[in-house]
Amino acid sequence: MKCYLECIPCFVKQAVEAGNILSASAKQREEILQKCLKLIINMDRDMTPPEAGMKIHSIIKFITGRKDPYQEIKDYYNNLGPAFYEKYKRKVKESEDGLLSSIRCAIAGNVVDFGVAGEFDAEKDIEKVMTQDFAYFDYDRFKKVLSGSRSILYLADNVPETFFDRILIEELKGKDIVYAVKSAPIINDATVEDALKAGIDKFAAVVESGSCAPGTVLSLCSSDFLETVKKSDMIISKGQGNYEALEDIGRKNVFFMLKAKCRVVSRHLNVKIGDIIFKANSD
After folding, report:
1. In the chain, pLDDT over 90 holds for what percent of residues?
2. Domains in the chain: how many in total?
């Protein structure tokens, strides 16, 4: 998915909010905004939003000297993660359809996102996702593909979404699962360290994609990871950034799980902002 004009205010707001989150000096905030505006003005509109986001956050890291500007926020949500896991794992066990309930959990975890402009109430929004209707619901196809698949590539998104991902991964019994995370900190996206904190490594092989963008941009990924993409029977793609990067991937058996959080993505999917998506790739 390419960048649209509506993406520009979101990029600007990200730059401003990042400076505030980091308690950057007035001079640093001004420099961040000036350099980001210059980048946006000269930006190739055919690049994906995750590619643009990577460039913007590279500016923020350089000016502030912070390798992981969102570390404190990730630490906060990683500390909440075990309680989220226990609560929603219990809901899955009590549900009539554990697989479907765990898919809802995985999508519910997607609400915590500092890469999209707007506010959220994590606990309230997670509870809403657990009961709201799906805008896309390709569950039958998912079950059919799952039954015929041995290897699954699971593309991670944010923290503490990793704890919710674990719930779904535990339901995918008997499968060889590779859980792919970012190769360097970007916003509150999951890294290897975050996956290990959630205990993902007990149920899946945790690997880095080679990309440092807030989405799995294949042109930025390592050759080893691209080979994993090629060999996987099935791909589960979590979050809006991964959808933006991969919606035209051109291969079968890719399933997108996300909450539509902005006007561009909601229009592209023909849904409302706030809708939840469980969509098979249209081959």
Report:
1. 74
2. 2
